[in-house]
Design goal:
The complex is a heterodimer of chains A (431) and B (568). Chain A is mainly beta and 431 residues long. Chain A is built from five helices and 17 strands. In chain A, strand 2 and strand 3 form a beta hairpin. Chain A is elongated and about 95 Å long. Chain B is 21% helix and 23% strand. Chain B contains eleven helices and 23 strands. In chain B, the strands form six sheets. A six-stranded mixed sheet of chain B has the order 8-12-7-6-5-9, with helices on both faces. In chain B, strand 5 and strand 6 form a beta hairpin. The two termini of chain B are 25 Å apart. Classes of the chains: A mainly beta (431), B alpha+beta (568). The interface between A and B is large, with 69 and 80 residues.
Chain lengths: 431, 568
């Protein structure tokens, strides 16, 4: 504790203070003393402080200047990576949940964004989750078509489950932990291309465990039978999961903050268990968003569906893998994964206005921005797409979003749903 | 004929005898000048160390701390006539002794441009404008910068015009030339570094240490650096050649505080009249990129340099890089937003947030009009001389008072149409219509600047006592015409009883009352001075919000007033 206090004191002093002025060298002939009356004097009582510039902000600025060359290129997305040539790079690359997210990336030191890449990242939160990632690949996937091999460990320690269907009861909340780890190989095209996405395959081990109890909430097995929480009795699984995503970005500023145009997205995952119980299913979905407006004011409409269909002889899909609504991108007034079933559908209308936007001659060019959006979400879940009533639930609220020139960086907001108010934070792709 | 005009103490120093001055800040009042000691900011000092002012740091300070600086009030270094003395920061030029139009056209330039052939010595990686450093046939060193590829002449023209006008205004600037680069007459240093262009968010120029096959050949240089720029019919590429400054570069100056290792630098920069008053000139020229990073301190070595030991000399302060002026934003053209909103403007963000996006700045309602590529966007539209803003909040501009801006506006108004034409001529536009359009815009914005700031003060000048009557000029009337009317109040606490008087005049003559008997001297100089405040009519017919204040000293023996000083 004492050590921490010492470190904090040093940081505080150095961040607000300035470096001490070196003692003056011996004065050569012909140079008057600084305080010689012949020298110009400031008004009495208003002696300007003679302090050399210093402090943490100054040091950070000097680092960026020395390494980024151009500040505009150093802000956000791939530019961020360009800021740290041949250096360890702090990153939120794989972060996606609240909590401290730190990590390291290393890029090829000559070609910067092409060639061999490797790195490790970690994202941890005191009570909610922890995730560690190591990757190796060819090219930086944020800026270049890339091939990447990823190993990961992810433990969501306080997941929640309310049962299946839109009519699941708020009072039936139960908790569980969900641990996964595996490896994934994928090829990808970054978002700033008109057509982007990835194709890959991963091997994953998944285990539902007790996790951390949230207050008086019962654990999931105490609240639900395996019939109500499918797969509860087969909680430890090994899968091979081929998967793919494709994004067609028809906006004026593909990959950036969308101001005008449409984005169509599709995704697909096929789960094949490697255990004795032959659980197999396919999850697929799609979404579309349309954006109208100018560089500062936009109206956005978004809608999406997702469905999971069993493929094997067992007509069962693990409750932990079912399509869901709630959280930081759909039905934002509800907790994460509040509603689950084999199909989900959702929609959003949002009025988005930029508080700040980087200057560009073309009002629809990619630019860093901070925007606020007022949104109204709807959504519902059902046994299949045909059963989904999009208007089962609704929520509304306000969200602040930050964008780099290459796309969304973070979002945080408040939303009200039928069961109360939620505070959301996300660094995921939101369109 | 005027007798006993106010003494012009342009060679004198601020006295140390100041306590807290009136007026809300430590501004030096006219009676606090001391004519016994020279203004000596060229006294020998040991060479200061090179100072770095990181752009990221400047952006952060500007965005979240308003640019920094401390204290308010009037400028600390205004002289008795409410001007400044010549210094290493500023030299009176056009506003005191009008320059010939050809002198404005020539500006600070002492040569005719680089002497061929040029030898490229390094690639310029700083800033947003690509270019390179070079040495010419005479050994003179240059920075060569290019126009945006699809906007030939834009940046080079703006930079030359603005440089020459800022120099003529009185500031220290580099010598900038329009230069026609002949690629066939170009050589490369053997150790030149390789350039890579990485297309991420925007092209970024990287340098990689030259070695082996990464050494940059001329063929690669032509392909990687020069190929993107359009050739003229004679095969040359238009560029800007900026001559290296004389002296030893020791980094930029900050617009707040003083340089810690220059004992000649005693006035915090945000309180210097020259830097505060630069606001009006920068606004006129839409110099949106005026910031610490676009300044440079040069160490000028003394003639009597010791044979050994540290270098001695003094620091001279330059404004550099005028690529983001007039219609140019260096890498592209200016847009209506430029000059209206800081790059990251918390005030504007707050307005947008609290109005849920309904608030729209005026520039948001103005689509950027089609403009000639060489000219960019430089217009009277959307120009508000009193609310102009550079990209980064500037502490000296933030502290500027109407008196500071008026001082700058007087310099702006000192430029005649002929002088402006001379400055524009230096841009060497290929289309005469571009030159005419720029000249029109310069004139319009000049007049708008003058009209605005001359109306924010009572713009009386050249105060004198003639046959016991105070006479003066009126800058507004003398510049824009009309008839003047002046309200005045006089107060002198030294006699017993106090001497007070007031009146209104239409002629520029005010009869100052005189005491009937002896006057007992008090301790502080300001207590012995008579104070005359003069309000002029503003353009709307009301009285100006700020009076001009004239301090007068009574000579009991001669029984006459003399002028001590003037403030606006």
């Amino acid at each position: 504790m004492k050590k921490l206090a010492t470190i904090l004191t040093i940081i505080a002093v150095t961040s607000i203070g300035v470096a001490p002025v070196a003692a003056q060298e011996q004065r050569p002939a012909g140079v008057l003393p600084d305080d010689d009356p012949q020298r110009p004097q400031p008004p009495d009582g208003f002696q300007a402080e003679r302090k050399k510039k210093g402090g943490l902000l100054y040091a950070a600025g000097k680092y960026v200047d020395d390494n980024c060359g151009n500040l505009a290129a150093g802000l956000g997305g791939a530019g961020f990576a360009a800021c740290f040539p041949r250096h360890w790079e702090p990153t939120a690359f794989y972060g996606g949940k609240p909590g401290l997210s730190v990590g390291l990336n290393v890029h090829n030191d000559r070609l910067r964004t092409t060639g061999p890449q490797f790195g490790i990242t970690s994202s941890i939160s005191t009570a909610v989750y922890q995730r560690y990632t190591g990757y190796f690949g060819w090219n930086n996937p944020v800026s270049q078509p890339a091939v990447t091999l990823i190993g990961y460990y992810d433990d969501q320690t306080r997941e929640q489950f309310w049962g299946l269907g839109s009519d699941s009861d708020e009072d039936d909340r139960s908790t569980y932990g969900w641990e996964r780890y595996g490896v994934e190989a994928k090829v990808s095209v970054p978002r700033h291309h008109r057509i982007s996405g990835h194709a890959g395959v991963r091997y994953e081990e998944s285990d539902i465990h007790d996790g951390r109890s949230a207050g008086s909430d019962p654990r999931v097995e105490e609240r639900f039978d395996p019939d109500e929480a499918p797969g509860l009795d087969a909680s430890r699984q090994e899968y091979v999961v081929p998967n793919a995503t494709v994004v067609i970005d028809l906006t004026r500023n593909p990959g950036g903050r969308p101001t005008l145009g449409a984005i169509i997205k599709g995704w697909w995952e096929m789960y094949s268990t490697q255990n004795d119980i032959p659980l197999e299913w396919t999850t697929f979905g799609g979404s579309a968003s349309v954006h109208l407006g100018s560089e500062f004011h936009n109206l956005s409409f978004m809608a999406g569906v997702e469905e999971a269909d069993p493929d094997g002889s067992e007509d069962e899909i693990l409750f932990s893998h079912l399509p869901s609504l709630g959280g930081s991108t759909t039905l934002r007034g509800f907790p994460s994964r509040r509603f689950r079933d084999r199909a989900a559908g959702w929609g959003t209308v949002a009025y988005r206005f930029a508080l700040w936007r980087g200057r560009t001659d073309d009002p629809h060019a990619r630019a860093a921005a901070i925007e606020t959006q007022l949104f109204y979400d709807v959504g519902g879940v059902g046994d299949d797409i045909g059963d989904v009533d999009f208007t089962d639930e609704y929520s509304y609220g306000i969200e602040f979003r930050g964008y780099g020139p290459m796309g969304h960086l973070f979002g945080m907001g408040l939303a009200r749903g039928g069961e109360g108010i939620s505070l959301n934070f996300t660094v995921s792709d939101v369109f | 004929m005027r007798a006993k005009t106010m003494s012009k103490t342009t060679l004198f120093l601020i006295a140390p005898a100041l306590t807290v001055a009136c007026g809300g800040g430590p501004g030096v009042q006219p009676w606090q000048y001391n004519d016994l000691r020279p203004m000596a900011d060229t006294l020998a000092i040991v060479q200061p160390e090179e100072q770095v002012l990181p752009l990221f740091y400047e952006v952060a300070i500007s965005s979240f701390f308003g640019g920094g600086g401390s204290g308010d009030g009037e400028a600390w270094n205004a002289d008795p006539s409410d001007g400044v003395v010549n210094s290493t920061w500023f030299t009176h030029r056009n506003s005191v002794s009008p320059l010939a139009p050809d002198a404005v056209r020539r500006g600070p330039r002492r040569l005719e441009g680089p002497a061929s052939p040029l030898t490229v010595t390094s690639i310029k990686a700083e800033g947003v404008t690509p270019g390179f450093n070079a040495k010419d046939a005479d050994g003179v060193r240059w920075i060569i910068k290019f126009d945006p590829p699809d906007m030939a002449e834009l940046a080079s023209a703006a930079e030359v015009v603005a440089t020459n006008l800022v120099w003529a205004a009185g500031y220290n600037t580099p010598e900038n030339y329009v230069y026609l680069l002949d690629p066939d007459n170009l050589e490369l240093d053997d150790d030149l570094e390789m350039v890579l262009v990485d297309d991420l968010a925007r092209p970024v120029v990287y340098s990689v240490t030259g070695e082996g096959d990464r050494r940059l050949t001329k063929a690669l240089f032509l392909e990687q650096v020069l190929a993107r720029y359009p050739r003229r019919s004679d095969g040359t590429i238009r560029a800007l050649a900026s001559r290296f400054l004389d002296g030893i570069p020791i980094g930029p100056f900050s617009y707040s505080g003083v340089r810690f290792d220059d004992p000649n630098d005693v006035i915090p920069h945000e309180h210097r009249r020259e830097l505060r008053g630069l606001y009006s000139i920068a606004a006129w020229l839409n110099h949106t990129d005026v910031k610490g990073g676009n300044s440079l301190d040069m160490f000028v070595r003394a003639a009597n340099q010791p044979a050994s030991g540290p270098r001695i000399g003094y620091v001279k302060h330059y404004l550099i890089d005028f690529g983001s002026t007039l219609g140019s934003a260096a890498a592209d053209r200016h847009i209506p937003r430029d000059g209206v909103e800081n790059l990251f403007d918390l005030n504007m963000m707050g307005r947008r947030l609290t109005s849920f996006g309904a608030y729209r700045a005026k520039w948001q309602k103005i689509p950027t009009p089609e403009t000639p590529p060489a000219l960019g966007y430089y217009s009277l539209d959307n120009y508000n001389p009193g609310d102009w803003r550079p990209n980064l909040a500037n502490p000296a501009f933030n502290k500027a008072t109407p008196a500071d801006a008026y001082w700058g506006a007087k310099i702006v108004m000192s430029f005649t149409d002929q002088q402006l034409a001379g400055a524009v001529d230096a841009a060497e536009y290929s289309d005469p219509a571009d030159a005419r359009a720029l000249l029109d815009a310069l004139r319009q914005r000049r007049d708008a600047t003058g009209r605005y700031w001359f109306a924010q003060v009572s713009p009386i000048e050249n105060v004198a006592i003639e046959d016991g009557v105070l006479t003066f000029d009126d800058n507004w009337i003398d510049t824009f015409g009309g008839t003047g009317e002046y309200r005045w109040e006089f107060d002198w606490d030294a006699p017993d009883p106090d001497l007070e008087a007031e009146g209104t005049v239409t002629r520029r003559r005010i009869t100052i009352p005189v005491p009937s008997g002896d006057v007992e001297r008090r301790g502080r100089p300001e207590d012995d001075l008579g104070v005359l405040e003069v309000w002029s009519r503003d353009p709307l017919g009301g009285w100006a919000s700020r009076p001009a204040t004239v301090w007068l000293s009574w000579n009991q023996g001669l029984r006459e007033w003399t002028i001590v000083g003037l403030r606006h």
